[in-house]
Automatic annotation (TrEMBL):
It comes from Micromonospora chersina. One of its GO terms (biological process) is heme oxidation. InterPro entries: Haem_Oase-like, Haem_Oase-like_multi-hlx. This is Heme oxygenase. Transmembrane segments: none annotated. The lineage of its organism: Bacteria, Bacillati, Actinomycetota, Actinomycetes, Micromonosporales. It comes from the Bacteria. GO terms for molecular function: heme oxygenase (decyclizing) activity. It holds the Pfam family Heme_oxygenase.
Length: 190
């Protein structure tokens, strides 16, 4: 499953990295606030929809790796007030099967790996203390390594027919696309 996801999303992953340009686009606290706000607009509905997905047959917490609260806390640390809601009503990605939910979770969990590289650069550039308004990137108070291990173990515990591998990869691509489609316009406007 993981190999199918990695191979099936490589181009989408690279496109999103190019569109978001992190940490490059973060030069000021206002830039950081804009990035965090844009990511919150994408993350909140995706995490909400993934938590409601059918995870039967997998020994995984439906909220594994949840980070929306960290985005909100980082924005609060920057003095940015956020609406109480969870962003868009429709996350825009179907997580209506176990395989599709796995594809979406793969993208969100994988983002923690990139965040661990982004956080120190942003902190140094903006003169922030470790974890100051970068809790989302660092996954402060979370255990992204353990989350990734638990995810990997759960996926390898079962068989994944080719149709489910394809579904998972399609949902992961749709998740990358949703993040880009949601965040990029907000970043251009900022």
């Amino acid at each position: 499953m993981l190999a199918a996801l990695r191979t099936g999303t490589r181009d989408h992953h690279l496109a999103l990295e190019r569109d978001l340009d992190l940490p490059g686009r973060i030069r000021t606290r206002a830039d950081l606030a804009a990035v965090l706000s844009a990511l919150l607009a994408a993350w909140a509905p995706l995490e909400r929809d993934l938590a409601a997905a059918d995870w039967s047959g997998l020994r995984l917490d439906p909220r594994l790796g949840a980070a929306t609260g960290l985005l909100r806390a980082d924005l609060a640390a920057l003095g940015i007030a956020q609406a109480a809601g969870d962003g868009r009503e429709d996350g825009g990605v179907r997580f209506d099967t176990r395989a599709r939910a796995v594809g979406g979770r793969y993208v969100l969990l994988g983002s923690a790996l990139g965040g661990s590289v982004i956080a120190p650069v942003v902190e140094r550039r903006l003169g922030l203390a470790e974890g100051e308004a970068t809790g989302f990137f660092r996954r402060s108070g979370r255990a992204p390594g353990r989350d990734w291990r638990d995810f990997r173990v759960a996926l390898t515990a079962g068989e994944w027919p080719p149709a489910e591998l394809a579904e998972a990869a399609e949902a992961a691509r749709a998740t990358f696309t949703f993040v880009g489609r949601t965040a990029a316009p907000l970043l251009r406007a900022a």
